[in-house]
Amino acid sequence: MSNSEGNGFMLAEVINTLEEFAPKVLSESWDNTGLLVQPYTTRLITKILLTNDLTEKVALEAYHHGCEMIVSYHPPIFAPLKSIVQSSWKERIVSFLLENRISLYSPHTSWDSTQGGVNDWLASSFPYCESTPIIPGVIPNTGAGRFLNLNSNISLTDAVARVKKVTSLKHVRLAMGCGKSMNDTIQTVALCAGSGGSVLKNVLTADLFLTGEMLHHDVLDATQRGISVILTNHSDSERGFLRGFSSKLQNKFDNQILVLVSEYDKDPLTTV
User: Which of the two ends of the chain, N or C, has the fewest CB atoms closer than 10 A to its terminal CB?
Assistant: First the structure.
């Protein structure tokens, strides 16, 4: 990738690179992905901050690091904004970004669907020989969720340990399938980053479901069908992807853009 503008890249070039990795067409129809905030006066992009959720602390973090752009996995602008005033935290963020000429891009479900994206990162918890999207996307080998056939049986105890390692979590929640034990073997896994209940409903049978959060009755239904369920909390099933992706994205720009990962971004829920 060449840069004819000196140090840094034009915003349009950065967006093109992001969408080469995950085309916007992969986003779900209900989602709000793409460029969400574009300051009137343009700047070359030399630093990008990656975050799972954009809070005011994260916006300030980007400013203090001198970032001209934030890539927020979850779109902070989802419902229409009727004003940009200081009484709402989301509107304050938009106001702050515009004032400080910081662009905002959100990929969300396009990163879930694409090859090498969030769901494939989550799938790396397991030794699988075959991975297929649960709901196929518009491009081959993309789509919502992943169904895995493992290349060797593992125990439920091992599955939990593997998920903790990949997500860097000390704790996960586990619902054991009816008649199952921690020593029972896992051969098939269905997973979906984030809130995966609606996707996992399309799976008739599996040994294990893995997602961030599910409704109580969906968990109950799965366990009564003999399917064990691991829940990590919503964004904890997604956030770890950013660590590995940051260096890959920086390499795509020949290290002419510094790609940082937010230190203030975290799931609002903790186990106490």
Answer: C
Q: Is 254 annotated as a binding residue?
A: no
The residues that bridge with 258 in the sheet, in sequence order, are 47
Beta carbons within 10 angstroms of residue 113's beta carbon? 29
**Does residue 3 have a pLDDT over 70?**
no
Domain residues for 195? 115-231
Please indicate, yes or no, whether residues 210 and 248 belong to a single structural domain of this protein: no
Structural domains in the chain (count) = 2
pTM of the predicted model as reported, rounded to 2 decimal places: 0.95
Which of these, 4, 14, 12, lies nearest to 46 by C-alpha position?
A: 14
Is 112 assigned a ligand-binding role in the annotation? yes
Q: Is 238 annotated as a binding residue?
A: yes
CA dist., res. 144 & res. 192, Å (int) = 7
Please give the share of the chain, as a percent, with pLDDT higher than 70.
Answer: 98
Helical ranges in the chain per DSSP H: 11-21, 56-64, 89-99, 109-113, 118-123, 156-167, 197-200, 216-224, 241-252
Q: Is residue 74 marked as binding?
A: yes
